[in-house]
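From the pipeline queue, job 12 of 40. The input is one protein chain; the requested action is below.

Action: predict structure.
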Amino acid sequence: MITRKLSRRLLTCMIGTAIMLAGCTNSSSTPAAVDSGAAQPSNATASTEKTVQELKIGLPGDAGPLNFYTGSSNYDYLTELVLDKLFAPSPYVDDPQPWLAESAKQLDPLTWVVKVRSGVKWHDGVPFTAEDVKFTFEYFRDGPSNRYTHHVSEVPRVEKIELEDANTVRMTCAYPCPTLAKITLADLPIIPKHIWEKVENARKFTELPIGTGPYKLVEYKPDQYYKFEANPDFFNGKPLVNTLVMPIIKDPTSMFNALRSGEIDIAARSVPPELLESFKKAPNMKVMKTSELSLAEIRINYEKEPFNQPELRQAISLAVDRKTITDTVLLGQGKPGLKGYPHPDSPWTNPNLSTPFDLEKAKSILDKLNYIDRDGDGVRESADGKLLDFKVNVASTEPTWIRSAELLKQQFAKAGIKTTVEVLDSGTIGTLSQSKKFDMYISSIGPHGVADPDQFIMSHRSGYLWTKGLAYPEMDSITARWMAEADVEKRKKISFELQELFNRQPTSIAMYYPDQSFAYRSDKYDSWVETLGFGIIHKFSFLPEKARKLATGAK
């Protein structure tokens, strides 16, 4: 599926480590205050660090004009070159720091007061104020949905956004929101009111974005390239690279040939295992390996018989030998999905999750469900004679997933489940989730889905992991407790219960957690930093040392 593929690849190109997914207060009775410290403006001091005139970064796909209403989270790192958030670098780390905000203070379980930074300007010279923050939150809450809007409209629900003065916003939630600063404020890009208040149809907006960020998108040619110019007045220091040129190179072979020849300086695509050693040995080349916040998954159509039986989904999960698949198709460049969903590297994931391979238990469950091989052909049937005979769809653009699907076919057969691997074009794969015309298909999901605790709740209300309104009393009960809890640690433990429930009867089966290896020309630029979920191609890699430390967690 193109969306998932680009998510994995482009998030890879951003090779990441400094995690940020965290709670913001310890208790509803102890208001939280998050003060500025690591992100003070640094323009006053001239940087002595080496600057570079231009870098060329190969992109594996076209993200459009960076309109997040028509794009997806695979291109967050491009959007965030231009737009800033109140906290940074992301909601995937333990302790996001104030960025466009100077501070955020929780007054009670429902109420936060946010002070925004003064002296910041939009790329067109208009001053940034708290009015832009108020407008952004209201626009996301009340307007058309995008990948960010649930953080204001539903999980959590920010009921009131009020201006106290030109630099202060008061936010009141509909139910306790103890992690508002560390998740919502660290995820939502702030947009300029003076531009977006004139936009009649957000999904048809094609103008190049105006932000407060370190780069301005000055040129975009569909399916050809992007060009970004440094913002010399960026509040956290002038970027070290003046121009970023990003040619779109969809073919993997062409991408890595361009890197070898010096046509590009870094590839926004993970180096295949078979090419790793050659790139490691190449002159003036370095390779960085990271544990990407993504997972390869088997999506199950839980609304379709017989997959609407939770016990059947459990049996399917138990029949998957994740280690064999990982060892065979990744050649050591990843870990088997034995911890299930969400990603085990997220601080919001239950460390005790377990999704083992247990063929005998899978068979036992199928026996109890009365799926038995009645005619001796190796395929189980239901009592009314319906075969356990399904299709596994996979995108033609993903050879690793195709190989995984073939191994799954063999593994399911040992449990008495027949599967046929059907390879489709990636565009068709992309429509399956909406049409519900599938049995199972292989895809991947990135950081926003597997590391953000609010999104895990939302995914059970959005039609992805579950569909809102579809009967699931046990899950609904746990979710209600989660929403009522004002203490961060207690809420985390409740979410652990939800994760355990999900992995007992999954609608998405984690096959493996891929590592990513990215090659770049160290003679051109060697100041890359990692931040988990965004890789190395992100704004912090191009900023002066003080701002870069925010991404890495270095003191």
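Job complete. The radius of gyration is 24 Å.
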